[in-house]
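Re: [ENG-882] Designed sequences occasionally contain unexpected residues at chain ends

Forwarding the minimal case from QA. Structure tokens:
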């Protein structure tokens, strides 16, 4: 166990002890010493009753910040346990764009219940944010920005900024609009502060505006922010009406999400599987079912590919004259499928480890995924093998070997990244080649071991 994990465990034990002894004041003082992310990690590892007790004593702003960063399952779970007044106070302090992202994942009746607790202005902003597609610029923008009229003086603009800064995501740039709320310019805080009080904003602003349309793909916003090194980018509609801004922290979130999505596609699984596994309070059965649904289509595709390799090998059967030479044909498909499911499990585990702490129960869950996917694939290869060689002994050897290899492949694919993480070695660098080599060796041993046992009983 590394020093960080040891400290986290000691902190968790300390928090549980304070809760058990009802030392509320000491607990609150302790929590104020830690970052919101650290507190969320503690909450994840507490049982339900202690979760609620800890969350209830947190300062409102801290509780809101934690919910800003959480998933919809944790959000729903926590809010369902709080009284209406406490719930409303926390919601009032939350970032509206983060709240909209979470509400978008809830059922309509749950969403309406939350929105009804907001004040009229916030409720309207959240409803507007919920209109936009998740993958659009509007889907990641916030309405927490400062816009000033082009006819204002610098003095008036500074006063307006002071009055409204508390609700803004950033105050480094002010967005200049005309009387119809059309975006006409942008002004930095620095330029505003050093200007004369009677200077007119229109004379100070820059008309060279980098903006993105509200219905454009969010990746366009990412490209512009990266290209022009922006802190935030304004979002406008097709009539150039200012609708919101996208801040650099939201851009970073998008970059991470897109990278994760590409990684999962590369591994032949889905981001939905990752989301299910990373959610708190999710039934293990749901995790296994989600993994099964995401992986089985691609595993069947690779199974077909392996069988094609078998057909190619069969064309060289003249090399050895043996009744059971066809067993050699199936080596690629049996070892290959173990490697395929191992790669999927490894990719998912590496990505999950970068966002949360997994324990070795995950290896058993992957084993269950291997059982279900292995049964389906073994059934398919069994039918294909019988059609191909018409020998029930070979069918039995290939099917059983494939099932066992897929179970072991899934478990090793999950175990090796976690083992390296425990050793403070980057699992993303070492895992893939070690898993591939391990499963090739293990797959061959299992296949020929089962072959030997089966044939010895026949002979």
């Amino acid at each position: 166990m590394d020093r960080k994990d040891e400290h986290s465990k000691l902190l968790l034990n300390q928090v549980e002890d304070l809760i058990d002894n009802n030392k509320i004041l000491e607990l609150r003082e302790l929590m104020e010493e830690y970052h919101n992310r650290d507190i969320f990690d503690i909450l994840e590892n507490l049982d339900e009753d202690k979760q609620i007790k800890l969350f209830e004593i947190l300062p409102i702003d801290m509780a809101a910040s934690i919910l800003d960063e959480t998933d919809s399952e944790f959000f729903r779970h926590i809010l369902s346990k709080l009284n209406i007044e406490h719930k409303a106070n926390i919601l009032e302090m939350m970032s509206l764009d983060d709240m909209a992202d979470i509400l978008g994942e809830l059922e309509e009746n749950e969403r309406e219940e939350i929105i009804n607790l907001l004040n009229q202005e916030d409720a309207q902003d959240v409803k507007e944010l919920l209109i936009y597609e998740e993958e659009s610029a509007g889907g990641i923008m916030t309405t927490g920005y400062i816009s000033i009229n082009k006819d204002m003086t610098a003095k008036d603009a500074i006063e307006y900024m002071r009055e409204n800064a508390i609700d803004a995501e950033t105050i480094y740039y002010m967005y200049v609009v005309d009387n119809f709320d059309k975006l006409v310019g942008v002004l930095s805080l620095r330029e505003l502060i050093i200007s004369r009080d009677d200077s007119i904003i229109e004379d100070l602003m820059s008309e060279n505006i980098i903006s993105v349309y509200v219905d454009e793909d969010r990746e366009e916003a990412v490209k512009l922010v990266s290209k022009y090194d922006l802190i935030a980018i304004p979002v406008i509609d097709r009539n150039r009406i200012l609708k919101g801004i996208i801040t650099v922290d939201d851009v970073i979130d998008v970059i991470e999400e897109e990278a994760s999505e590409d990684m999962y596609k590369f591994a032949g699984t889905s981001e939905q599987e990752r989301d299910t596994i990373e959610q708190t309070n999710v039934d293990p059965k749901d995790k296994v079912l989600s993994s099964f649904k995401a992986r089985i289509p691609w595993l069947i595709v690779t199974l077909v590919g392996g069988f094609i390799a078998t057909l190619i090998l069969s064309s060289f059967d003249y090399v050895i004259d043996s009744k059971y030479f066809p067993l050699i044909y199936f080596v690629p498909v049996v070892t290959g499928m173990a490697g395929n499911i191992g790669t999927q499990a490894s990719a998912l585990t590496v990505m999950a480890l970068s966002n949360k702490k997994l324990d070795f129960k995950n290896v058993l869950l992957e084993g269950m995924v291997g059982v279900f996917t292995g049964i389906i694939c073994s059934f398919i290869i069994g039918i294909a093998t019988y059609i191909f060689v018409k020998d029930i002994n070979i069918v039995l050897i290939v099917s059983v070997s494939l099932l066992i290899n897929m179970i072991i492949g899934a478990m090793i694919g999950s175990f090796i990244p976690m083992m390296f993480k425990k050793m403070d070695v980057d699992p993303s660098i070492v895992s893939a080649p070690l898993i591939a080599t391990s499963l090739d060796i293990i797959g061959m041993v299992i296949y020929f071991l089962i072959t030997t046992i089966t044939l010895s009983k026949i002979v």
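QA comment: On inspection the terminal residues look reasonable. The longest strand covers residues 183-188. Proposing we downgrade this to a documentation issue.
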